[in-house]
Amino acid sequence: MQQMDGRKARGDESRRTVLARAIDIASVDGLEGLTIGRLASDVSASKSGVAALFGSKEQLQLATIEAASAVFAEAVIEPARAYPRGLRRVCALVRLWLGYSADRVFEGGCFFLAASVECDSKPGPVRDGLIRALATWDGYLGVSIGYAMEQGELPELTDAEQLAFEINALFNESNTRSLLHGSRVPYEQARTAIAARLLSLGARPAILAEAGLG
Amino acid sequence: MQQMDGRKARGDESRRTVLARAIDIASVDGLEGLTIGRLASDVSASKSGVAALFGSKEQLQLATIEAASAVFAEAVIEPARAYPRGLRRVCALVRLWLGYSADRVFEGGCFFLAASVECDSKPGPVRDGLIRALATWDGYLGVSIGYAMEQGELPELTDAEQLAFEINALFNESNTRSLLHGSRVPYEQARTAIAARLLSLGARPAILAEAGLG
Hints:
The structure is a homodimer.
Chain A: H1 2-29, H2 36-42, H3 47-54, H4 57-80, H5 87-102, H6 111-119, H7 125-150, H8 160-181, H9 185-200, H10 205-210
Helix pairs in contact in A: 1-4, 1-6, 2-3, 4-5, 4-7, 5-7, 5-8, 5-9, 6-7, 7-8, 8-9
């Protein structure tokens, strides 16, 4: 049993190493850029060893999406849980998302935007995996906005999904523009736009200021 | 001379045929998906014939960006010129952009967003070509917003570039979401958000309604 556990632990460790590299490759070169040969060479492993860990390229792509989701949750969602439900948590999510992109948690910026734009015209299991990952984020952001509405913190807002769409739009534009122009200004533009939008919905300026968005 | 002109005309015609296909391939599979071999096979030409028209893959990618810019100008910028400078032209640009994406003028949605996200982490001549193409669009949208400001049609607006950033963000999000989910709802969300933003800047509701945005 101990030997089996040891082998399993080494397998899990190898999987993590390969997936960490896979996420960075995919954030720069797309999920199509992920090949078992390239990964094996990057992590100094044999092709057959990497193939044994994942099976097909498609399974590798799906495992990479899941691993990226876990990294994203650790960078954005988990730290936001430290803030009380409602507008304070929404503001924390905004600040953390902008930081996640600006700090290049993934080498090529937001993994999910890169993968979405790559796969959006290509139906199949990989696009479905990505849609599931995005739905988890959309759900979390939407529910968080919903709590702020329930608590009367966004008195002019009637549609949480609409606001989530607008915030995601500003996030993604800041990510793409920042990468293209090698500039941090787009994050400032996104922050300015989101703060103005929240204020127009009746958010208290003190809460935004406290979160570093005001 | 006549013979030379005939040869040149045939060369231009072949170039146009190949580039029309190249734009659609790139909008789905990215600029990296453009290979001389694939294009030759798609348009039933010889590889050497296509190679003679473009030279290198990089030159083909740059020519494709220019050709896509011309198609975009014809679909969005030229028809907007029919509207008077100022808020009416800004509203026309919004309606035309959303239509350009929704009607899939390019097979895989907005060519420029797909290419931006693909190239944003990859410095080089292709990214530079794309940055130039985007700067032309940003400039046109920014100047158009500037005319609306000068004419007092957006009395609360102080920064044309900021508004252009926000409008582009909503355009691009609607494009990606619509493709991913096979839905037109994201265009409605973008239209709603842009109309609300223009109204919050003091735009006259009648002008928005007249443009089909209200």
